[in-house]
Amino acid sequence: MILTVTPNPSLDRTYEVPALERGEVNRATGERVDPGGKGVNVSRAVAAAGRRTVAVLPLGGAPGAVVAELLDAQGIEVAPVAVAGATRSNIALAEADGVLTKINAPGPELTAAEQELLLETVHRQSRGADWIACCGSLPRGLAPSWYAELVGRAHTAGVRIALDTSGPALAAALRERPDVVKPNAEELAEAVGCRLTTVGDAVKAAEELRGMGARTVLASLGADGQVLVDEHGAWFGTARVDVVRSNVGAGDSSLAGFLIAGGRGPEALASALAHGAAAVQTPGSVMPTPGDLDPAAVTVTATVPVDRALKEPVT
Q1: Which residues does the annotation mark as catalytic?
Q2: 3-class state of residue 8 by DSSP
Q3: Which of 2, 10, 192, 264 has the fewest CB atoms within 10 Å, i.e. the most exposed one?
Q4: How many CA atoms lie within 13 Å of 199's alpha carbon, on the beta-carbon side?
Q5: Distance (Å, rounded) from C-alpha 314 to C-alpha 240?
């Protein structure tokens, strides 16, 4: 079972438009309403793969009730933490060429009592979990050290934990040595304070992140692929994508694929790549099913092309 923690969930409405024209009336060609938040998306991807998952998240108001209903309809067990503020509502505009414009609301401010109840709920639900995946930004009221507290408690309970966050929250959590961290290229560069222009730069930055406390680093480089660095070495992988429809939740689907496959080694990296590639070829934030995966489109190698220039450098 994979337990997910989403401190700042959302109700996401995605509109597909041919092309976004500012200041004009834009007519959508498609519309979806989904439960949102990075941890929520990981649970949705795990459930789509036919695996058991439990989603822990603070929920409040009418949007929170809709999020719970949508998750339940997808076969996801929900462990809600009732909060006074209303769950945020987000809007995404997906253009035909793959460009995505997002408007994310700030979300409610959690009280000290709500914060502690969230931690206690995670501890209670984590019994028997193979992994805890805590993902996304922290809502108002939660200090950057909140994720560090969560990682420490998970390890005390003997549960492996994967973390997908950035900035001060990531920096604070590293001292508790999370089992997996999953930054994208921008987050990786920010965490170690360097430029990423080649695959080798990304591997070096991942190694630095391990030196700061991460046990395993799974770094997404967007269209350039992914790198995996742990105590056994480094691997690089790519996946062919024929048509990009939406990258909403692609990184979360990738993390789900990694954890489903055991959360370590090149086989898990290949699973992460297959899930991420399938996700970007689905509309909105639809999560791929096993039938959507194309393992033959994935390439993983321990011979890392360190001099390969990134198509999307971070400078």
Answers
A1: 252
A2: coil
A3: 192
A4: 20
A5: 22
Amino acid at 253: S
**12-61 per-position pLDDT tens digit:** 998 999 999 999 999 999 998 989 999 999 999 999 999 999 999 999 99
- The residue written with tokens 């929250």 in the block is 169
CATH assignment of the domain containing 87 = 3.40.1190.20
The tally of domains found in the chain comes to 1
- Looking at residue 159, the DSSP 8-state letter turns out to be -
Q: What is the residue whose two structure tokens read 């220039």?
A: 309
User: Which amino acid is it at 249?
Assistant: G
What are 184-219's pLDDT values in tens digits?
Answer: 999 999 999 999 999 999 999 999 999 999 999 999
CB 217 within 8 A of CB 228: yes
Tell me the CB-side half-sphere exposure of residue 215, using CA atoms within 13 A: 14
Beta strand 10-17 with 88-95 is: parallel
* Dihedral over Cα of 78, 81, 87, 91: its sign: negative
